[in-house]
């Protein structure tokens, strides 16, 4: 069962990346593009509709809203376009991680932490 959950989580991650790619593709209808951006932004955002620290309900919105949003957008995107972007997302996930990207994220968090400390202590 744990292996099935991991596979499902990988598929969700791949589909979120594929939706982001499809949102930037001119072959995708405008309404599907707008919804794809919204679903991908919600899935990747640290801000949730219900905060994760709320017992049970905190993760329930991630488990229900994100897959339903993905399902809706996948139905709106032309099948050939979605298959192409799923393949691209799977290839990107199999490739090496970007160390420069990780360094940028760490730098942003360190800057935010330093700015918060300066604001609170200053």
UniProtKB/TrEMBL annotation:
It is found in: Endomembrane system. It is a multi-pass membrane protein. Residues 32-68 form the DUF1232 domain. Keywords: Membrane, Transmembrane, Transmembrane helix. The chain crosses the membrane at residues 30-50, 56-77, 98-121. InterPro entries: DUF1232. GO terms for cellular component: endomembrane system. This is DUF1232 domain-containing protein. It comes from Neoroseomonas soli.
């Amino acid at each position: 069962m744990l292996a099935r959950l991991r596979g499902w989580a990988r598929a969700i991650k791949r589909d979120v990346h594929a939706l982001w790619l499809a949102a930037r593709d001119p072959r995708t209808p405008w309404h599907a593009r707008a919804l794809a951006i919204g679903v991908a932004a919600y899935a990747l955002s640290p801000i949730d509709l219900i905060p994760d620290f709320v017992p049970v309900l905190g993760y329930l919105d991630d488990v229900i809203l994100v897959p339903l949003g993905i399902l809706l957008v996948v139905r709106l995107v032309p099948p050939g376009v979605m298959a192409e972007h799923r393949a691209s997302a799977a290839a990107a996930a199999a490739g090496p991680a970007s160390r420069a990207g990780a360094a940028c994220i760490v730098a942003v968090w360190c800057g935010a932490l330093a700015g918060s400390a300066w604001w609170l202590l200053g």
